[in-house]
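Why predict the complex rather than its parts? Because the way molecules touch one another can change local conformation, and only a joint prediction can capture that. The input here totals 487 residues.
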Amino acid sequence: MSTLSGRLRALPSGHVTLGIALAALGFLVAAQLRSEGPRVRYTTQERSPLVETALELQRNQDALKSRILDLNKQIRDVQVSGQGNAAIVTQLNDELENARVAAGLVALEGPGLVLELNDSAVPVPSGATEADYIVTGQDIRTVVDALWQAGAEAMAVNGERVTAVTAIADIGGSILVNYAYLAPPYQVTAIGPKGLYERLTAVPSFAELVRTRADGFGISIGFAEPQKVVVPAYAGAVTLREARAEPTPTPASPGGSSSPGGP
Amino acid sequence: MLRLRSQLALMAVAIALGFLVVLQIRAQNGGSDLASRSPQELTVIVANLNTRNDQLRTEIAALEQEFGDLRTAQSRGQTSVEQVREDLSRILAWSGQLPVAGRGVQIRIDGPIHAGSIDDLLNELRNAGAEAIAISGIRDVPGVVVGGDPGALTIDGTPAGGSLEIDAIGDPGALGGTLTRTGGLVAQLGATEPGAAISVEPADRIVMPATKRALRPADAVPRL
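Output of the joint prediction:
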């Protein structure tokens, strides 16, 4: 050790600084190359205003979703404050709260896990399809379906709650969930019973995903089991334009299906 | 001379370092992979974001109206039974907890098909704005999964039989158009699922049941 420090002392200080700077340069070059991953980076001038517009629209969307959550809370507060007026309102409010929880309109917390998928860090071999090395909407859907099969009760993808109307689609080369375009890494947060991860690994479609996508193309699939996970409320439209509630189950419509059922 | 060369080399390395640090920070802080998108893809993303944001604005207008009505009723000392009941009915119907009826499309699939292809159809319908979906009479809600092998599919654990019917309530033009457009999902499935015959028909009135699943989570509590 003393020999090394002696040698370092013997070197001109400029050389030591240069050496450290070159080491840092090497590290950053490697980090930059790695961050490029399998995704192509475009440098055309026409792209820049489009990126800015998309970022601005995403910021607007965040504000709009926040306003929806805020209004939902205000409406709930007014409805609850009216409960002294009549016993029936109290009962209705309880039903309404249960319906909101079941519909995904209320944030939940509980035991569960977080599964993270990320694009492959493996260099794309020449002649291979770059898209195979990128996480797709299909990958996310496979994970979501496998988690349901494993017993998950509530889920969100990068904070977007999975509801009855949630689509997870590949549009414009990115993954769209509900209203939002998501960027990797993709975190699927699921609330469910203890041992959810063990159950998940026993689901054939998940095992197949690991085999084909992780082992085959280097897609990164990791997981964490925090003591408690949080699944946010759905922040979107709960509007029916075409569908109308049928108070009582009706016999089959033309080709349609109907059977008694209830919550 | 040697000292000058050394300083110049150090300066060049410092400039390169600074440039790469900025690039790296930008890459880490972008919060988006938009930088890797082509102009064509970005155009699609911008168009989609505009449409989705407009839908959110419409929802906000409806919620503001509802909030205003509730406040007015409350200030007059009126009970809000009717508004609460309407809200309850809307949320139950939207989430699959009540039977619903309306116009839409009916998709019939005869012959063996992979579960993943059915999942693609359901996802496409949701993305096209379907308000409610049922697969062979089983309401599509969170937790319902199509599984099994072609010819022996299960819907939420129930055997589906030889043919499948997917009912979707929503704008029939939008739903049908998305599925059947040139190069659309039905055309793609025609190539990848040669054993399955898929037809899409508009319907004036479809009735579908409520889910039989218990949607209220047992392991979770509302986060206040």
